Write the structure tokens for this entry.
Amino acid sequence: MFERVDFYAGDPILGLMVEYANDSNPNKVNLGVGVYYDENNVLPVLECVKTAEQRIADPISARPYLPMEGLPGHRKACQDLLFGKDAQVLQDKRVATIATIGGSGALKVGADFINAWFPQAKCYVSDPTWGNHISIFEGSGIEVGKYPYYDKATGTVKFDELIAFFNTLNKDDVVLLHPCCHNPTGVDLTQAQWDELLQVVQQRELIPFMDIAYQGFGEDMDSDAYAIRKAVDMGLPLFVSNSFSKNLSLYGERVGGLSVVCPTEEEAERVFGQLKFTVRRIYSSPPSHGGRVVDIVMNDEALHKQWVGEVYGMRDRIKAMRLKLKSVLETKVPGRNFDYLTTQNGMFSFTGLTPEQVERLKTEFGIYMVSNSRMCVAGLNGNNIDYVANAMAEVLKD
Ligand code: LMR
């Protein structure tokens, strides 16, 4: 009966987690999945989250269904973080925001909404992008294409090609953009480039869909949201999916949000209703625990301040690892340029290793990276960085 069902070869990122867990090499290093580990190679529970958990006085209290759109405090947290606390667009009530099951859930609800209300739209993603972007949009029945982005030769954005490509797109085509900490390359647009790109988005009446999963890991909370706020200032309609997995270290709680910026309050109300209906059709309503933590941390002034400090602590440790790896590799592999390690932003670095070199790192050294050469820099620490640098130098020699 099920003979026709295709074999699933596994996910290129999540599959690595399983391989890593099963590897008996005592020196193994996990630089695959985008997860932040601290200097002791431990997945941190943020102090602000610990306090929030304590404030949820009775963790075995009753669990009512949440509304389809999630907790009001969770939704407000998304809006304040993305658009700025006092943003005019929020005062004008032009943003429809729902709490979602992680950033992936936000993308899925957004993609289903787009397929229902803009059925002609195609979605264009950066080349390369996070693989699940393609899977989620295609899974919602939307045709996905790629726009030029990363230039292997220079390690920068192919900006002229990108602009020329956007100029060929049709009204209501969706362009999926990474406002900061591009996944997988770590190569971001400058603010001037965003200004130019968003002009084209406006002229061609494209629908920008910004996926922000690493806010606070690039420059800072506000600069990382530059593209979002610029699009709002320009009066563009806009979809934003956000995730609290990384910046609250709440991966397994699956907490995120989907916000749709609309031209008027009346349209925002309609969109909000349809987002709720979309949720109802997929999973009815979000789970409650993670949403309660988000609500408490983000809406309490002292906890929020503590949270920002903790995120910047993670950001700074990643930056320090980038610097250290660069300096070690420069000595070990003279003549090769490792500047990319410090010019790229966020958790990820595109190393330019070949799939064969990545495979050798795994099989010979127990070092796990994604086969497209993406390294999660947040998996490096003082204890493993020399081991990783030596191994990289070894595979780069041949
Ligand atoms: C990643 O890119 O590694 C993370 O976003 C985790 C995932 O779901 O792929």
Notes: The longest strand covers residues 95-101.
